[in-house]
Amino acid sequence: MTVKILGIETSCDDTAASVVEDGSFVHSNIVASQSGIHANFGGIVPEVASRQHMTTLVPVVTQALAEANLELGQLDGIAVTNGPGLAGSLLIGLNTAKGLAMAKDLPFIGINHLEGHIYAAWLEGFDPSVEPGFPLLCLIASGGHTDLILMHDHGGYNLIARSRDDAAGEAFDKGARVLGLGFPGGPEIQRVAERANGYEPPFPRPKVKDSLDFSFSGLKTSLLRRAQDRGWYPLNPNVEHDPKEIAIVAAAYQAAIIDTLIHGTLKALEKYHARGLLLGGGVAANSLLRREITERSPVPVVVPRPAMCTDNGAMIGGAAWFHLRNGQQAQWNLDVIPNLRLG
Asked: How far apart are CA 68 and CA 177, in angstroms?
């Protein structure tokens, strides 16, 4: 008997819903992005994000059900992200999911957003727990998190490293702002860097002494100083910038972020003897990271397609199937936990 779960994700600025069968088959996956709205502010405004979720979530859920050719009562459960994330955004998703589950007396499952990014790897048509098998090292790199998590079984996690300051995605966003590029910063820097043709002195590769933890604040400051020295920052509309020079600096900055991520990940692989490496989070959509880490890793690398790396409802529905399979359901008094940890 198959199990179909509606997954709802509203932890930040994307409104997403998806119907997933048996933790792996995606019947629908609808994402309404707010990037265009927040680009006007140069970053995510929490109050704006939550208000947008209020107007968008019901149509997104309706479309997800329609594409899956299902009525609400035909589902076997409803899952939702309850943390980490922006409190207001999380509340919109959580309360909507509770209401839908109560209306049809369906099982209700709360999912850690970071766990969702891990289980995106199970949506690619194979089972990483079988091949390459546990333990798996998981690099979750996004705008809010840069974590290395050792997964030794379904539901069994140990946090072994994290960023001490900025997350990798945040470093991309702030770097793009300094260079006068758009939002979100990761795709913008990648787009510009692909046109680079020239040499820029390498940026520093930050390291935390006697630790696997990451740090990106110093790298961000290094970019800021170079931009100030060249008159690029603060932005002045009366000063023309050479796009070719911007591209060269963007490429060097991107290379530093990616190399820092890969260096720490490879050290963790060596220390913990993981059999495979999973990547998740928006930064995992970066083409340079995907290519370099696949070439340099001594173990098999599982990277979901870019659309599954960024926030989506399918990863929440996929993760929820493993919880429901083990009889794990949330209570109706489940609350949001903006700083929820994994491991």
From this structure: 39
Take residue 53 and report the two structure tokens written for it.
């979720």
Residue 39 CB contacts under 8 Å (≥ 6 apart), including other chains:
182, 183
Are 280 and 174 in a shared domain?
Answer: yes
Same domain, 297 and 249: yes
Mean pLDDT of 181-209: 96
Which pLDDT tens digit goes with each residue over 133-146? 999 999 999 999 99
Whether residue 127 lies inside any domain: the answer is no
Residues 141, 290, single domain; the answer is yes
Question: Residue 140's closest CA among 106, 172, 163?
Answer: 163
The verdict on 179 and 232 lying in the same domain is yes
List the 276-280 sheet strands across, edge first: 156-162, 146-153, 136-141, 276-280, 301-302
- The whole-number average pLDDT for the span 60-78 is 98
C-alpha span between 154 and 160 (Å, rounded): 17
Q: What are the C-alpha distances in Å from 113 to residues 130, 162, 314?
A: 23, 16, 12
CA distance 219 to 3: 46
pLDDT in tens, 247-277: 999 999 999 999 999 999 999 999 999 999 9
Please list the alpha-helical segments (H only) found in the chain.
35-38, 46-67, 87-104, 113-119, 168-178, 185-193, 217-229, 243-272, 287-296, 306-309, 313-325
* 8 Å CB contact between 54 and 94: no
- Residue 32 sits at φ, ψ, to 5 deg, of -105, 110
Q: Give the DSSP letter of residue 235.
A: -
One-letter amino acid of 164: R
> b or e along 37-66 (b: 16 or more beta carbons within 10 Å of the residue's beta carbon)?
ebeeeeebbeebbbebbeebbeebbeebbe
Residue numbers of the domain that contains 246 = 132-303
Q: Are residues 78 and 227 in the same domain?
A: no
